[in-house]
Design a protein that fits this description.
Blueprint lengths: L1 H24 L3 H35 L22
């Protein structure tokens, strides 16, 4: 799912750059309408994608046991016990 979100984000960024270049090069009303549609699409994307991602992250943090790090690090070595001489 994260790869899909990344691909959609990259495609949307490319689309926004393309629209910006059209607006800069031409001063027509259709380009301005396209910019409005792109802005609405961004807002719609945020409204649709953000809640599931937030719920996923909340679920991940709630199911992780306390004290477990997010990264896969090696466990610390056992403590050294003094010899009882």
């Amino acid at each position: 799912m994260l790869i899909l979100v990344a691909v959609i984000g990259i495609a949307f960024a490319a689309f926004c750059i393309w629209v910006l270049m059209r607006i800069i090069n031409r001063r027509e009303n259709s380009d301005n309408e396209l910019l409005v549609v792109a802005c609405i699409a961004v807002l719609l994307l945020l409204v649709v994608i953000a809640p599931p991602i937030g719920l996923y992250l909340a679920y991940q943090s709630a199911t992780r046991p306390k004290g477990v790090a997010k990264t896969m690090a090696a466990p610390p070595p056992p403590p050294v016990r003094p010899s009882g001489r």
